Amino acid sequence: MVPHPREELFSVLVVDDHPLLREAIAARLAQMGAGTVHEAATVAEARARATATGPCDLAILDLGLPDGSGIELVTELRNHGWPRIVVLASSDDPYAVRSAFQAGAQAYLLKSASPMVVTDGVRRVLEGGVYADPSVAPVLATGTRVPGTDNTPRELSAREVEVLQLVADGQSNKEIGEELSLSALTVKSHLSRIGRKLGTGDRAQMVALAMRAGVIR
Fold first, then answer.
1. Residue 66's closest CA among 18, 99, 13, 14?
2. Strand 85-89, strand 58-61: pairing
3. Would you say the C-alpha torsion 75, 80, 86, 90 has a positive or negative sign?
4. Which residues pair with 40 in a beta bridge?
5. Full-model pTM
6. Which of 59, 80, 104, 136 is exposed most, by the fewest CB atoms within 10 A?
7. Region 56-65: what's the mean pLDDT?
8. Is the pLDDT of residue 1 over 60?
9. Helical axes 19-32 vs 115-126, angle rounded to 10°
10. How far is CA 87 from CA 5, 12, 36, 142, in A?
11. Start and end of every HTH luxR-type domain (predicted)?
């Protein structure tokens, strides 16, 4: 059974390094029917809490944590059986939004959002749905389309986006292959396909086009 915020108690882990914000979120969740709210201020604390409690019904976490990546924490929690994750972030950066959903989050909310939007987003996730803050929804609507050199949008696969991000990070084909468990030849094939889609074989230009579209950082 999926817990309903007004009918059944549910457990939550809130991860944010700002005590006042955590307190406000916890109070809002209690109003919605949270029975137990665990808190953590860092990635390390979140890992310890997650290990101690096991999967809660819901996790709400910031991406800008002081000791590590919030995106990686989303992936870890999902891999350990956490069923519902809401990202509450200060950034509406397109790369962060896409990365959060690709990592397994069911909602992306902005800290600047009204309490009503936050409540709606959490309720939607508890009911088994997904939710994006209205101001970031257009980012998701564009998917992973990148305008090529002729300005025609081309759809890149998730793997192609991964490869391009590692190119942007300065990695060679061999290093990218090791990172993604692919052969250097397969990486080269991905880059050739990306080049055909975007109309350029130049690595720097491919990266620039993808960055401009907000697909990679």
1. 18
2. parallel
3. negative
4. 15
5. 0.69
6. 80
7. 95
8. no
9. 60
10. 18, 13, 19, 20
11. 149-214
Q: How far is residue 151's CA from residue 51's CA, in Å, rounded to a whole number?
A: 48
List phi, psi (to 5°) of 81.
90, 10
Distance CA 151, CA 57 (A): 44
CA distance 98 to 108: 9
Residue 149 has pLDDT above 80, yes or no: yes
Contacts of residue 166, Cβ cutoff 8 Å, sequence gap at least 6? 175, 176, 179, 180
More confident residue, 186 or 91: 186
CA–CA dist 105, 102 (Å, integer):
7
Q: How far apart are CA 58 and CA 125, in angstroms?
A: 9
Q: What is the pLDDT of residues 158-170, one digit of tens each?
A: 788 889 889 988 9
User: Which pLDDT value is given to residue 11?
Assistant: 96
Given this model, what pLDDT does residue 206 score? Answer: 92
Nearest CA to 132 out of 97, 104, 171, 169 is that of 97
In 3D space, the residue among 143, 128, 142, 133 whose CA is nearest the CA of residue 112 turns out to be 133
Cα radius of gyration rounded to whole Å, the chain: 19
Does the pLDDT value for residue 188 go beyond 90? yes
